[in-house]
Every structure is written in structure tokens, then in C-alpha cells.
Give the backbone structure.
Amino acid sequence: MPQITADHATRRGTALRAATAAVSAALLAAALSATPAGAGAATGTAAAVGTPVGFASVNALGQNGTTGGAGGRTVTVTDADTFLEYIDSKETLVIRVAGTIAITSKQGVRPNKTIIGVGTSGHITGGGLDFYRSYNVIVRNIRFTEAEDDAINVGQQSHHIWIDHNTFSGAVDGSIDVVRGADYVTVSWNHFDHSDKSMLISHSDGAAGTDIGHLKVTIHHNFFNNSRQRHPRVRFGEPVHVFNNYFLGNELYGVASTENAGVVVEGNYFQDVPHPLFSASGYADSGPGRAVQRNNIYVNSGTPETSGTVVEPRTFYAYTVDAPAGIPSAVRSGAGIGAQWGTP
């Protein structure tokens, strides 16, 4: 596969696929068209909810991109029992979350689902979502708070998962984990609000057997807002593509590439981040990884650590990198939950 070297000159993408706030607004035009109903009531047929940028858009593993519950029924839930019933259903569904759903632990989500908050009301608290050999799922416009473990765990060979326009705070462990051979994941336009462990890719230094050749993840236009660490912390995965994110006041570090992972970090804005990027030195007990950085802005931040070569993300998909100077404004205004993402 084509390789790129550290500090390689920036090359503009050739295909624009909804990677800016303006293009994100186009997702609204394709948003769900159902009318709210009572808990569990069928409210129509799912409409398209837009197209992801990055690995969730790639045709692979028998899946043609990520479409979630498109083509299935649309239902609206207001209570935990009904919510759990629908996410465990084998039916293709768009599940609209209206109000606060209090759950415990991590609850399994079966394939072919869209889970989307209504307006700014969609809220999952106390527990999280778990993907075990699941695929083709979209999670959008949900506020996740106080998860007793992970808010979202993408694991055990799950693939084609798109996590978009959510807000995370207060998880005891990670906000998002992508582990155990999961693949083809996009994490876009989320707000990590003073979280501790934002995002882990591969759970252990001993996971080479399940993770090498997998864990292809795209992370773009997220707001890492005074979150402490793991934006992400990566083992084994290649390429992990981190572009056009806003890193603000991250106490421990921004990105860490370890255990021979390959990470491309481009077009991001780092502000008040003492260690924007670890790679050659590894991190904690994990051995060194590989990382390329290009076209990032560092304000009152440390020097990024780069090493080696990484498979070029454009081997898999086309994308456009926004000018990093505009990222703080775009991400502050566009990341996280908002009425436009969940209003039919």
C-alpha cells in the first residue's frame, strides 16, 4: 500500500464528502422524516441520514458503507424497557430517543440500527452501548452521561459503526472504545466534555492476535474539550486517521500511537496541549508506534513526536482536509448534540 513519511507535505483531497459544518448541515436535509409518537410506536419508514466520511463509508466485509436503520421502521422511545427491546431486536430500525433513558452496564446493540436523539432531549445515562459482532449501526445526537463503564464499546469484530454528533461526559472508564478486532469505524463531530479517557483503540498490549490488520478508524471534527487523555490512545491499528479535530486543554496528552500502530494526524488545532503526539517513545507500558503529522496548528502546545511511515488513508477513501485555522470555530459550533441533528 502507498506510504507517507513524517511531516509529509499536505495534499488536498479530491472529493468533498460532508466533512465541514456546512456539509454537515446537508445531513439535516436528509434526516429522518417521521412524526414523534408514544413510546415504541411505529412512526413511518426510515429516510436516509447522510453519509459518513472515512472508514465507515468503505465497502468491505460484505457491507456497502454504513446506512444504519435506513429502509426499516422508525420508532420513538421514551423509556428504558422499550429502548432495550428495540436495540436487541433483529429488525432493521431507526430508534428515536426522546428524553432520558437510564440504564446500567453496557447494553448490546444488534445490526442495522440508527439510534438518534430527538432535538436536544435524547439522553442515555448510567450505562452505555455495546457492540458484539454487530455491524451497520449509526449512533447520533445522544448525550451520554455517567456511564458506569464505557459509554460506547465497539468490540468483538464489529464493523461499520458511525458515531456522530454526540456529547460525552462523566464515564467511569472510556467514552468510546474500539477494541477486539473491530473495524471500519468513523467517529465524527462529537463533543468530549471534560472527559477523562476519551477514546481507546485496542484494549491491551497483548491483543496483537485479534487486532493486527484491523482497527481502521477515522476520527474527524471532534471537540476534545479539556478532556485529559486518549484522543485516541492506539495500539496495533493502521491506519487510524485523526483529522480536523480541536484539542483544547488536554492535561496528559493528545494522541498516542503505541505497539506499532500507524496513525496519521493532520489538519488539527492543538491549544494548550503539553504533549500533542506520542509515538517513538510509546506511552506508559506500551511500546512505540508510528505516527505522521502534517498541517497541524500548535498553540501554547508541545512538540509532536513523529516516527516511521503509515499507510495513507486515501488508499481506502477520499476526503478533504479543512484549513486548520478555522477548526476551533467550526467544531465549537458544530460538534455535539443539537436540535438540527435529531429534529425530523
